[in-house]
């Protein structure tokens, strides 16, 4: 892959994050509201799909005719992945990677800025 394609993708991602950021002091435009809401719905759809696939994988491992010792690790792993998919789908990821309060605070600010009801 060309380095320019990679750099263009990174610039687009950073520009998107800046565009929908709740810390921008400008009034929300119609385009900004559409982009932010589309991103929220896309993120929730992808996470819902991930959660469904995790539930499907857990069901497959529960139906296998093997000892429980062999099922515990994959079921636990897919359960943690399921929890992560639901959490990220609902609240997203804040600026601080390992802080749940940061995630809730950012989601609250986005919800207030874009007047989301969900």
From TrEMBL:
**What is the protein name for this chain?**
Preprotein translocase subunit SecE
Q: Which organism is it from?
A: Bowmanella yangjiangensis
Please give the start and end residues of each transmembrane region. Answer: 5-21, 41-64, 76-96
The keyword Transmembrane is annotated on this UniProt entry: yes
Q: Does the keyword Transmembrane helix apply?
A: yes
Keywords from UniProt, A to Z, are: Membrane, Transmembrane, Transmembrane helix
